[in-house]
Amino acid sequence: MATIQHDVPGINLDWLNVDTDQGMEIETGRKGLTLETINQLTYGVDDRDEARQRQWAPRGAAADPRSPSNSVQHLNKADVWTESAMLLYEEALQRQWSSARDIPWDTIEELPPDLEHAMCTLCTFLTQVEFIAGDVPGRFMEQIHPEFFESQLFLGTQLMDEARHLDVFRKRTLINGGGMSGAGLGAVQLLGSDDFTEMTALLHLVGEGFVQTLFRMGELISQNEAEKRMFRLSAQDESRHLAFGVTHLKYTVETEPWRKEELHHILDMQEALLTQSQQTSLTTNPLTGEALAILSGGGIEHLDEGYNMVMLMRRKQFIEYAHRLEVIGLDRHDRFAPEVLSLLGEDN
Amino acid sequence: MELSTMTKVRAKKAGWSEDLIERIEASAATDQQVENLARGELSEAKISGWLEFMENHPDNPFSSAPFNIFKTPAEIGLKATPGPDGLRLRDINIGSYGVVPDQWALPNDAPRGTESTGQIMAAGYSIFDKAEVWSENAVDLYEDAIKDRWIPATELDWENGLAELPEEMERSVGQICTIYSNNGLVEQKIIGRWLEEISYGFHEVKLFLATQVYDAGRKVEVLRKRALINGGGLGQAPLGQIYRGWYQGLTFTDMIIALDVVYKSYEVTLFESASEWAQTDVERDIFALIAKDSRRHLDYGIAHLDWYTRYKPEADKRLNIQFLRAEAAMVQEMRLSTTEREALIVLLAGGVENLQAGVDKLKTLRQRQYDSYMENLASINFDRPAAHPGLVGQIKDPLEGGIVAVRAVAQN
């Protein structure tokens, strides 16, 4: 644009000619105007492995040279990136739901006390731990450089999802007379994560992965349509979180293969906890394990069937976990603890 | 095994027959198991079935299940009732679950209404004082945010709601979008950083803040999309001095004053005035939607301020300096980061031919922003007679500070 002449002192319109890309050609498709659609020209992320400036500036915009730097942000893309961030963000927006209106609470009828208390025990655990999965990403959002903002936007949707999970499981404990059980050890240990990739491994891959397996088996433990919907919708959310974690770890392994041993060590430690501490897993925690057995068996009189179902759940958690490791590119068969191999049926 | 007296009392209260009790005493069941089952007031049929399980599967790990699920420290027997809008968070604030103490005592993630029954692992929460975070409306704002959700990718008329604009107008729209998209990104970061400080007793506030993070992300997304779809592109990033105002808040309330009271007052008024400067239907729709989101954040900020002034000791000694710092950051941004005001001037003027008309309209807008800010404070009887003079300065001369800023950029 030609330099604009005007007669108002104090106005400088040089910003009209700032050197940023113009003329992006966009075709919106069935999914509308998505982040992937606008991932072009210098606004795109594909051609950069490191952030190009320290200041607060949207990717592709011209930074203000006076702008304060922010020192906590990762400048290295691999530290925070996944190729699926844009897709997962858009999917999250499409799949938001309301615990107030989208769960058919009127389908909950009076249950035998063992089933009611068991469901409320499970939901107490879930309402306790779910927002830790919100607190943790909250802290790490600050570490994401604006040039990799899509990862930050995704974590914002996870925060929203976890809020909804705290909310919906709390509502279940209080709609049918059961009330809450005592609180267990919870999940605050996740707040001790110091590195973004470590956080993803512990929270998304392990924590949410194991919970997601359970939610997907919600049909086995639900007693009415409200609970089925609750677990189904929550499972849908967890799938996105898990996908973020798996694809970030895969990206890390592919672009920074020297971090493999670091990731193996993180998982060595976490698997040891899972197999040796009862508190860390839904299926082994004394309270929730018992609750799951009662729910899946159909009552205290069917704990034999319930036990079989809990063992099936536990086995399925580890089988799915092992599969995700394959997707990531981390072969852990030589490193799995004997208890894990046993659950995978590989202890011969 | 003979059941203890108390367990027998519970068993009889549960309606179990003498025959059943005898059968229990003849089984491998422990007194603890039976006491807990009796607490649950399970039917005879259930207990009989359980005894059969014990007899047939003595080696099953669950044959020694203690049934602590029936031994809860929390209140039972309450049934929340959904309202016309479904089962909202306020509807489950019943009995002891709805009691929000002035000081939260638990250091871990135990939900409000119950207690930890075993070991406690303390988190690093730093906020246990209700006055530091609370607002009476957070519980409703959370549900309203979910109810009012919208999707930029598919619910805006990107195909037909835009029009080709003169280059300076398109660049000006892009400039506004660049600034406020960036603001949203930092808004997410600062709120996200504070979430893990807030203890679990105030979950309504944490849940509301999660919606603000989500809304801010949507603002980032939609404004970036608007800047890029119509040929103009992004412009110059803002200076970001305002972010220093958000970050320099060393307490949560400090930060909320800077972000959700001072900044949001100005942001909401600007967005709500978009019909005066937006150029296409898509912009009008975008700014109407993000205005609605931002107004929830402002509503929280004002309601929290209200609570804080009522219940925080020495609030009156703290607030003036907190406000002055927040207002100073706002003023510095308005004075030194000139692209926002200049883009508005071009848009309000309808082009670059008569910029003075745009300046005059910007004065009116700045007056409205200031008045809204004052009215928001007045709505809770919060008096602010000594607001930063720079705010009024921006009304008298919306170009104040501009020359200094221009010189600084030119030298760089």
Structure description:
The complex is a heterodimer of chains A (348) and B (412). Chain A is mainly alpha-helical and 348 residues long. Chain A has a domain at 112-179 and 187-344: Orthogonal Bundle (Ribonucleotide Reductase, subunit A). Chain A is built from eleven helices and no strands. Chain A has helices at residues 85-94, 113-130, 132-141, 149-175, 196-216, 218-221, 225-255, 260-276, 286-297, 303-328, 338-344. The longest helix of chain A is centred in the last third of the chain and has 31 residues, at 225-255. Chain A is globular. The termini of chain A are far apart. Chain B has helices at residues 5-13, 18-26, 31-39, 44-56, 138-147, 152-155, 167-195, 203-229, 241-247, 252-272, 281-311, 315-336, 339-349, 355-378, 389-396, 402-411. Chain B folds into two domains: 5-70; 130-411, Ribonucleotide Reductase, subunit A (Orthogonal Bundle). In chain B, α7 (167-195) packs antiparallel against α8 and α13 (339-349) packs across α14. In chain B, 59% of the residues lie in helices and 0% in strands. With 412 residues, chain B is mostly helical. Chain B is built from 16 helices and no strands. Classes of the chains: A mainly alpha (348), B mainly alpha (412). At the A-B interface, α1, α2, α3, α4 and α9 of A face α4, α5, α6, α7 and α8 of B.
